[in-house]
Amino acid sequence: MEDAVAQVKHILRGTTVTDAQVRDAVWNYYFDVDRSVKFLRDQLKRQESKRTNTAKKPAVPKAFRERSLFADTVSCRRGTGHDCNEDLRLSARLSPSSKSQPKIHLGSSCQYGISVFDGIPWGLPASMNTDITYCGRPTRMGLLGGSSKLAALAKARAVKRQQQSEQPQEQSEPMEGIQHASSSTPSTASQSRSSLVLDTSVLPSPSESGVSISKRLTSLLAERSRDRGRTSARAISPEKQFYLRRTGSGSPSISSHSPINSDLSSASAVFSENIPSSFATSLCDFSLPPSTFPSPASPSSFPGASNGDVYGNGMSADEIWKLITNKPFFYLPVTETQVEEIKANFDRPSPDDIIKEAQATKGGTTIAASSKKQPQRAGLETEMKSLSIQEPAVKASQPKQKINVVEKFISSHRKAHVNFVVVGHVDAGKSTLMGRLLYDVGAIDERTIQKYKRDANNMGKGSFAFAWVLDQSKEERERGVTMDVAMNSFESSKVAFTILDAPGHKDFVPNMIAGASEADFAVLVIDSSPNAFEAGFVQSGQTKEHALLVRSLGVQRIIVAVNKVDNVNWSEFRFDEVKEILLAFLSAAGFSESQTTFIPCSGLCGDNIVNRSGRAELSWYKGNTLLEELENLTTVERDIGAPLRMSVTDVFKGNASSAVNITGRINAGNIQVGETVLAIPSNETATIKSITIADQPNDWAVAGDNVQVALSNIDIVHLRAGDILCAISSPVKCAQTFSARVIVFQLRIPLIKGSNILIYRGRTTEAARILRLTALLDKSTGKVTKHKPRHLVSGQSAIVELEVMGSSFPMETFKASKDLGRVVLRQEGITVAAGIVEEILSVKNETMNE
Ligand SMILES: Nc1nc2c(ncn2[C@@H]2O[C@H](COP(=O)(O)OP(=O)(O)OP(=O)(O)O)[C@@H](O)[C@H]2O)c(=O)[nH]1
């Protein structure tokens, strides 16, 4: 050793090489003088070159120079404001000779240094003696574009860098994994990785034995491992470093043949450093004993250590060696036994499988494995499709004594039964007129009228006494306004009449529609008082609307009572004036002149109601009284032998019996006690328990009769006002979509496709939508004048398609039933159109019971 050192010193005399460097080189090169000399000369060249480069660089700021950095060589990858993702390689070397002041050596990219180190959260212990070398940017793999000259230059530089990087590697070959602290050449492949140079100040002195050195080294490593749990993985210091790996591919950095017991003052063990994430850290359990880890590929021990040596941490040298050399970087804290148990768990059925199997066994079927689920689901789908709800066949119960109702009706010679509706503008005197009629025909006795007069006088409404005959409710009497249709009956010598006194106020038009739907004829009451007629006839008045509605609902015969002529001094002129205007309007609305009669009258005074007026002022009128006109009405033809159709106007529970009572009018066909009928839309059957006509019990009833029927075998929840009772053999449909011929009333905005409306018939109301405007019609001929109009305006006649949005609307075509084939369309409280059902295009599912 000494001979070799002397020879090298002699060869390199006159140079700045130190004794320590010579000894180090001789030691590293196994006392080979030539290789040691070569190495030292190259080292001198590099030092000279570096000094030259450093002189060209800008001075390092004092603040940066004095910054405390790491005791170890560290690597950090962090983005800076200047050069994001730049790989910064910092090589901080500790030198025993520089304990007092930290020194910083900058590489080629020192201009980034200040900003690079600014804001580093983990500072260095100020006590550490640190030399820092900034290694510059990582080697580029090539140019992106550019000229061929530049590419060639870059290639040449890359080759040069490669040669430079290979040179020190070759020199340090004997010290694989160990670098001389004096080496400052960073641009090697290994330096592109992060490296940690152990602080030799904490290592044993060169004079210590190999065993002592190994003990110190392993003690240090073990100490670091204990500190793992309480230090941040990012804090890189001898105390904080735990994840140590040797630089290189994994071969021991300190081989058994390394002369580690020689001068170690310039030797440093180099380890690479990787910082795991928090998640990875949580997966690792480094507290397990070394025996947990797999054995190293080759047995190793610290040089000079003897078997059985136990160090400060209670571990043998072998265990420590395994810990630092072969420990997997990440591993799950499970033993092989545990792994086998986990594997075995998957060989058994899961708890879910066990439960499913038990359920399947109990149900008598086997749940297939997941791969067989699809066919089973397909089977279920098929079964579901084949499912159908089959209602029990409805058995029509036969009456005990089957009555031939048609024969009975003909043989009974009953009076014709006629319903007429009284309509007109509000306060036209409708109720008063009908009260007077009832009084004059003897339907109301004198005592009752006198009582009404007294009560009305007490209330300050003496003139309403006759109106109270029909306005029975307290609210109607207090307000002096009819709110719902009032029914009353009387009989003349020829006909049985039912009065349907409709409200005149615009808020109660739907009720008026309900009354008009049941009428055979109409009495239109006009207030002939000055300006009163005009007020009722203008657009906002109800005179026109009511007349149009009754016509649209099938009424063809109308009597116009020009009322309150006492207020115009029984003026014939006024009468003629009103008659002329109305005749034109009613003719346009579809009433023929022969079917329209005008009568000057006074409901309050009783002139021309039942008795002809004896006033001289009214002597100019030679026509019939109101009653005479009513009796002269043409008898309405009714199909009493057709399938039953009965419109329900009210539903209520009887006091004593369990039966459900309904009132209504038979539109077509007949009924008899004991018969089973079908309620639409509930589709529930019921048995007729009793029939009452005009407060008299009867075994049967025919079309046109207003009846009260007690039904059994049905719950009241299946019936409501507006329903239809029909024959089981011929149920009524509930339309989903239908087409109708309509007459458009006065509109504020045109009707267009998609308009939302309400449809009415009798007591039935549902939301609907205009699906299509099919065609415009000529009002006189009914022929199509235009297809697919864009909109409908006031006064037009058209064919439209409508969709019922609500749950149900029982209806028939007008051809099949003149009563159930009519609809009224309203929008925002205004009647916009009315018409007849031409075709039912689709029906609701629940009524597909044919
Ligand atoms: N002068 C005079 N007043 C009458 C006549 N008929 C009715 N009236 C008055 O007109 C007012 C309204 O009478 P009603 O019978 O309530 O009128 P209505 O048309 O039934 O009213 P609504 O049903 O609420 O629209 C009352 O004050 C009556 O006294 C009449 O012939 N001559």
Question: What topology emerges from the helices and strands here?
Answer:
Elements: H1 2-11, H2 19-28, H3 33-56, H4 62-65, E1 74-77, E2 87-93, E3 103-105, H5 113-117, E4 131-134, H6 148-171, E5 178-180, H7 189-192, E6 196-197, H8 210-227, E7 244-246, E8 267-273, H9 278-283, H10 317-325, H11 336-347, H12 351-363, H13 373-386, H14 405-412, E9 416-424, H15 430-440, H16 446-458, H17 474-479, E10 486-491, E11 495-501, H18 509-516, E12 521-527, H19 532-537, H20 542-552, E13 557-563, H21 572-589, E14 596-600, H22 626-631, E15 645-653, E16 660-668, E17 670-672, E18 676-680, E19 684-693, E20 696-698, E21 700-702, E22 706-712, E23 724-726, E24 733-744, E25 751-752, E26 756-761, E27 764-777, E28 784-787, E29 791-792, E30 797-804, E31 810-811, E32 822-827, E33 830-843
Parallel strand pairs: 3-4, 9-11, 9-12, 12-13, 13-14
Antiparallel strand pairs: 1-2, 2-4, 5-8, 6-8, 7-8, 10-11, 15-16, 15-23, 16-22, 17-21, 18-19, 18-23, 19-20, 19-22, 24-30, 24-31, 24-33, 25-29, 26-27, 26-32, 27-28, 27-30, 32-33
Residues 426-432, 463-464, 467, 480-482, 503-505, 563-564, 566-567, 602-604 line the site of guanosine-5'-triphosphate (GTP).
Distance between the termini: 119 Å
In the predicted model, the low-confidence regions spanning at least 5 consecutive residues are: 59-146, 169-214, 227-273, 284-305, 327-331, 364-373
Major sheet: order of its strands?
Answer: 10-11-9-12-13-14
If you average the pLDDT, what whole number results?
A: 72
Total helical elements: 22
Query: What integer value in Å does the Rg equal?
Result: 56 Å
The amount of helix comes to 25-40%
Backbone structural class:
alpha+beta
Task: Report the sheet-strand fraction.
Answer: 15-25%
Number of strands: 33
Largest sheet: 6 strands, mixed
Shape: elongated
- Small molecules (ligands, ions, cofactors) in the structure: guanosine-5'-triphosphate
